[in-house]
UniProtKB/TrEMBL annotation:
Residues 469-494, 504-514 have a biased composition (Polar residues). Residues 521-535 have a biased composition (Basic and acidic residues). This is TAPT1 protein. It comes from Dasyornis broadbenti (rufous bristle-bird). It comes from the Eukaryota. The gene is Tapt1. Keywords: Chondrogenesis, Membrane, Osteogenesis, Transmembrane, Transmembrane helix.
Length: 553
């Protein structure tokens, strides 16, 4: 309405009800109406056409004929393919490491039966005949000879203590338990074995150092005898623990329906659940690999003990061995399958290549080669114990106890067979050591770690930074060269002077593989800086037993 008059107006802005006449060059109202109707009809046809495009046949046709190009995301699919190839390479690379590691454990295990008695005999002979030659040195015995005598005495004492443990009574006591109880007992024994192994090597190392520590220093220990008693108690208890494991496995083998054996084998697959879905770095995976090597070798010895006990009960009938053969194969196959699946998925989830197992093998080989040089700071069997958590003394005590109780030696011919068998063990030990040393030198050369054998890293004594040591120290550790120019890695250690600062010659295999890649750490930093080092430890520093690859600090 108009604000002045209040009269309504038409749509074309005037009071006249008739539409205004079209001006020159403008369409008439009728033409406007026709044009508007044409546009509305065209819009309706387009709407109908768009609805027809959404028909079911056209949708199916589009789904069947649409295309895409994978090369637009080439990096992503190449990475997926490499992961598949890595999983396919894991079994081969892992078994190479396991094969080499098992023979390292076998070498350390055979050392207890073959060379250790001979070394103890030579050390005792030197001790007895020492007055005939006079005191040329301030030491009555060399540190290595003292450690050998301690190992031999511990072995003999624990062997006689094991005679008071009745294997038959233990077998029937375990056999009377229910399947669920035995399953729980077996799991508890596995955990207890890992825990006691981690503490046992520390006990033995403390005994060796207490017995060989220079007497000029201030006494900071409780004495050799208390340490010796603790070592004997540890070896005895660990041997009983392994005996209970072997007895439980023997009961599972002799059960009628094999249900217990099946449950025990399925327990290995539970290990996959506890390991696969955790974050692993290269150092953690290396420690897990060492733990798997130790576990597999220990299971092989347990299977040998079970077979010996069963063969004794059936009067050494060869036919019964074929009865045990399928169960033995099932145990071994389950161990191998679990290890392969576990490592394959760990490397996949943590983006680790299969070449890392070659680095692990080279690191173990470096330890073997380093232990054969001058000024070696540890015996190789002890190095294997620290690296893998494998302690051969309790297992050797149990095996000797089982063999002596299962096999009766009577008559001259039987003793001749024992002597021949011992000579065969020595030959096997020497042959195994030679082959391992040759392969280790090859692996070290392939990994380009030879220069680290000639240039060892020196770490200062506790409380003194390496960069503030007084004087210089020329390392004599290295591969010696004889007159013909050939190298030797089996020379005896050279005793250092007492007034020289005590330095620890550490292996350089820790620098060979660090995490993350390409990150080098300063070795000569102060002790205050060492306290704040990153949690990503070097390989050599990972010498404690772990559970599921997580280091116990």
């Amino acid at each position: 309405q108009d604000s002045g008059r209040g009269e309504p107006k038409t749509l074309w802005g005037s009071n006249d009800p008739r539409p205004p006449a079209a001006g020159p060059g403008q369409p008439s109202p009728q033409q406007r109406t026709e044009t508007l109707g044409f546009y509305e009809s065209d819009r309706g046809r387009k709407k109908k056409r768009s609805l027809s495009d959404l028909s079911l046949l056209r949708f199916i046709s589009a789904e069947l004929t649409r295309g895409y190009f994978l090369e637009h995301n080439e990096a992503k699919y190449t990475e997926r393919r490499e992961r598949v190839y890595t999983c396919m390479r894991i079994p081969k690379e892992l078994e190479k490491l396991m094969f080499f590691g098992i023979f390292l454990c076998l070498d350390a295990f055979l050392y207890v039966f073959t060379l250790l008695p001979l070394r103890v005999f030579l050390a005792m002979f030197r001790f007895i005949t020492l007055p005939c030659y006079g005191l040329r040195d301030r030491r009555l015995l060399q540190p290595a000879q003292v450690c050998d005598i301690l190992k031999g005495v511990i072995l003999v004492i624990c062997y006689f203590m094991m005679h008071y443990v009745d294997y038959s009574m233990m077998y029937h006591l375990i056999r009377g338990q229910s399947v669920i109880k035995l399953y729980i007992i077996y799991n508890m024994l596995e955990v207890a074995d890992r825990l006691i192994s981690s503490f046992g090597q520390d006990i033995l190392d403390a005994l060796y150092w207490t017995a060989t520590e220079p007497k000029e220093r201030k006494r900071a220990h409780i004495g050799v005898i208390p340490h010796f008693l603790m070592a004997v108690l540890y070896v005895f208890l660990h041997a009983i623990l392994i005996m209970v494991q072997a007895t439980t496995l023997n009961v599972a083998f002799n059960s009628h329906n094999k249900s217990l054996l099946t449950i025990m084998m399925s327990n290995n697959f539970v290990e996959i659940k506890g390991s696969v879905f955790k974050k692993f770095e290269k150092n953690n995976l290396f420690q897990m690999s060492n733990s798997d090597i130790k576990e597999r070798f220990t299971n092989y010895v347990l299977l040998l003990i079970v077979c010996l006990r069963n063969m004794e009960q059936f009067s050494w009938n060869p036919d019964h061995l074929w009865v045990l053969f399928p169960d033995v194969c099932m145990v071994v196959a389950s161990e191998i399958a679990v290890d392969i699946v576990k490592h394959a998925f760990i490397t996949k989830f943590n983006d680790i290549t299969a070449d890392v197992y070659s680095e692990y093998r080279a690191s173990l080989a470096f330890d073997l080669v380093s232990s054969r040089q001058k000024n070696a700071y540890t015996d190789y069997s002890d190095s294997v114990s620290r690296r893998m958590g494998f302690i051969p003394l309790p297992l050797a005590v149990l095996l000797i106890r089982v063999v002596t109780s299962s096999i009766k030696v009577q008559g001259v011919l039987a003793y001749v067979c024992v002597v021949l068998f011992y000579c065969g063990l020595i030959s096997l030990k020497v042959l195994n050591s030679i082959v391992l040393l040759g392969k280790s030198c090859q692996y070290v050369k392939e990994a380009k770690m030879e220069e680290k054998l000639f240039n060892p890293v020196l770490t200062a004594t506790p409380g003194k930074p390496a960069g503030k040591q007084q004087g210089t120290f020329k390392s004599t550790q290295g591969i010696s060269t004889d007159e013909n120019g050939s190298t030797s890695v089996t020379n005896q250690p050279v005793h250092q002077k007492e007034n020289m600062p005590s330095l620890l010659v550490t292996s350089n295999s820790d620098q060979f593989l660090t995490t993350p890649d390409g990150e080098e750490k300063d070795i000569s930093q102060d002790s205050s800086e060492l306290k704040h080092r990153s949690a990503k430890k070097d390989l050599l520093e990972i010498d404690r037993f772990t559970i599921c690859g997580n280091r116990i600090d």
